[in-house]
Amino acid sequence: MIVYPSGVDVSTSSLRFLAQQLRRHRRAIGSRWRRLSAGRQALLALAHLRVGHTYAQLAAGFGVGITTAYRYVTEAVDLLAVLAPTLAEAVRTASTKAFVLLDGTVLPIDRIAADRPFYSGKHRKHGMNVQVLTDPFGRLLWASPALPGAVHDVRAAREHGIIDGLAEADVMCWADKGYRGAGGTVRIPHWGRWETLSAGQQAANRSHAKIRALVEQAMATLKSWRLLRKLRCSTTRVTALVQSVLALHLACSAG
C-alpha cells in the first residue's frame, strides 16, 4: 500500500477534547504503554469518523496493525458515545427554547436486497433511522439510537419516547408530515394536496416549511462526518458512532 500525507478537516479543539478523554481513560485503566500516544490515537479516530478512512488505510498511515487500528477507534468511539446527552437531558435543554424541530434521517448501510428490515421505502435505500432534535436555529440537541431503516419516523419517535417526553415538558415541536398522528405538542403541516387546501392552510404550510427548513443544518452537521454517509460496519455499532459524533460536536461547539 502506498502511504501519503492527508488532512482531516476538524478543529484542533476536537482533537484536544478527544485526546484528553483518552488520557483520562488510560490513567483510569492503568495503561502504561501504547503504540500511539493519546493525541495520535485521537487523530486516528477522527480520521475514521470525519473522512471515513478504512482500518487498513488507518493502519498504513499510522504504522500500526489493522487490529490495533480497529481497537483504537472502537475505544475512542465508546468513550465519546457515553458523553452524548440522553433524551431527558435534551428535553430539559429544549424546555428553555421557544420550540424544537424534529426530523428523521436514514444513514445508508451496505446491505443487500434481502435485508428488508433495513430497507427504507421512502428513501429507496438500506439504512438506519436516526431521529434528531434541534433548537429553533437548527443546532443539534440530541440524536436517537439507530433503528432499522424500515421503521417509519412517527413510530421511531414513539419508540424512543420523544413525543411523550416533549409533551410532558410542554415543549412545542415542529415536524414534517412523516409524523402524522403523533399528537402531543408535535405540529405538522396541513394534510392534503396543495390545490385542495384553503388559502389559510396553504399560508400556514408555507410558514411551517420556513420554520422547519433550519433542521437541514443539523442533518448537514451529522453528515459532514463522512463515515455516516455510507456505513460499512455492523448495524449494532451505528448508535455508538452517531452518539460519538454528537458528543464531539456538542463539546466543541460549546467551547
Summarize the structure in words.
- The chain contains ten helices and seven strands.
- Strand 2 and strand 3 form a beta hairpin.
- The chain has two domains: 104 residues; 137 residues, no CATH class.
- Helix 1 packs across helix 10.
- It starts with 11 loop residues before the first helix and ends with a helix.
- With 255 residues, it is α/β, with parallel strands linked by helices.
Give a quick set of tags describing it.
255 residues; alpha/beta; 7-stranded mixed β-sheet; 10 helices; 46% helix; 12% strand; elongated
Structural category is alpha/beta
Please give the number of β-strands: 7
Major β-sheet annotation: 7 strands, mixed
Percentage of residues assigned to helices: 40-55%
Task: Outline the low-pLDDT stretches.
Answer: none
Number of H/I helices: 10
| Number of domains as seen in the coordinates | 2
Query: Termini separation (Å)?
Result: 39 Å
Give the CA-based shape. elongated
Report the portion of residues in β strands: 5-15%
